[in-house]
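Hey,
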Amino acid sequence: MLRKFSYSLLIVFSMCSCIAKDNNQSHNPLSVSFGDPFVIQASDGTYYMYGTTWGLNGFKAYSSSNLIDWKDEGLIYEGATAESWTVDYFWAPEVYERNGKYYLWFSANWKHNPTNEEENFRIGVAVADSPTGPFKDLYDRPVFDPGYPIIDANLYFDDENDKVFLYYSRCCYKHPVESEVATWAREKGWFDEIEESWVYGVELKPDYSDIIGEPVLLLRPPVTMDDEQAEWESRSVTSREVNRRWTEGSFIFKKNDVFYMMYSANFFGGQNYAVGYATSNNPLGPFEKAGNNPVLQKNIEQGGRVTGTGHNMVLTLPDGEMLCVYHGRTQETGEDRVVFIDRMWIDDNGLLVVDGPTTKE
């Protein structure tokens, strides 16, 4: 496949493979202070990274030829303008190139808020002719309104069947859920209730103007404490950190006719943020969580210095190499979220493995 590219691009891809294949030469964390990173590759081989920047009413981008050195491209989308449907809290951007146009999917607080909700997040889409924008809202409203706050848009393009699917997370806000973990926390006098976020999927109209049909619940935290996923997905509660359990930051891809959905659990601002995955034979499930979860988590108990690993995406290089792009924290970066890129693969048994978190010596 690499024969299709120029010699200069071959050098670039070889440099990228060094990140994936040689942990002794790890460049983590990268010099980009982002949450929720998302990377695309343009037709000229340049990589562009998008992410959440606290306090910014919009999004910026970085560019790179080697996935190591990143150039700040500045603001590529500005929200909270007079004509915008948005107010603030611009989160989790993802950019997709379709037919020569670039589409920016994101979450933000919606101006329409008659009941004065503290969290009024919805998902929108903006379009541009370039990966560095400027992106302009495709519509003067969110894509759809499910009646509750939603974040973390992720898309899957089923070109074979000419369909597009949207995945998102329902926020924990005002979503108390009864479970054995909730009962346990209440009996201990820690929390009166436990709120949860759940991942949904739904088909999109071709022009992204609305959804088709009703959203389908795909992933949620375990209900019983003997569930093999309950321990790692409940750490924010069992550590008495907060009265919420998250299932968010989903990213779906297809490999060997299997749909893999990666997701993050626990408090995104805490040390226990971690990544797991589930599999299905259908883009709308049902999904079964994997027995080797979590596949990415803090390593301080093993002598490392990384915590808060989560909200990942998967970047596939031209040679088929898979990279896990995610954010985390180190002792040096403190509360700032920074970007990591580590090698990942699907083994012969269909298990997803992430070789991380790694850091440079």
